[in-house]
Amino acid sequence: MHSQPTPRGHSQVAVQRAILCLTLDAYPLSLTISTLSAEVDQVDVVERAVADLCRVGLLSRSADSISATVAAVHFDLLGL
Fold first, then answer.
1. Beta strands 65-68; 59-62: pairing state
2. What is the tens place of the pLDDT at every residue in 1-60?
3. What local confidence, expressed as pLDDT, does residue 64 receive?
4. What is the predicted pLDDT for the residue at 10?
5. Whole-model pTM?
6. How far is CA 53 from the centre of its chain?
């Protein structure tokens, strides 16, 4: 059974999109929750968005280090 992101409405989708864009722009470097929170200005929302994006395989997290996955980068390159 596949994990589904937690539904939290339009604003959560916008935060996920922003975080994914930031991590794709930084690729292959990693970002931290602190860096992402400074951009989005809401730590709890960033934590939820990162967890959801990790759950669906678009982000990878190791402690406080967050990066886009190879799959996310490839999908971005396809321009779909």
1. antiparallel
2. 444 454 456 589 999 999 999 999 999 999 999 999 999 888 889 999 999 999 999 999
3. 86
4. 59
5. 0.84
6. 5
What own/partner pairs with CB < 8 Å and gap ≥ 24 does 32-38 have?
32/64, 32/65, 32/66, 33/64, 33/66, 34/64, 36/66
User: How do strand 65-68 and strand 31-32 relate by DSSP bridges?
Assistant: antiparallel
Q: Which long-range contacts (CB under 8 A, 24 or more apart) does 58-61 make?
A: 58/20, 59/19, 59/20, 59/23
C-alpha dihedral (35, 36, 37, 39), degrees to nearest 10: 90
DSSP code, position 27: T
Counting Cβ atoms within 10 Å, is residue 77 exposed (0-12), middle (13-18) or buried (19+)?
exposed
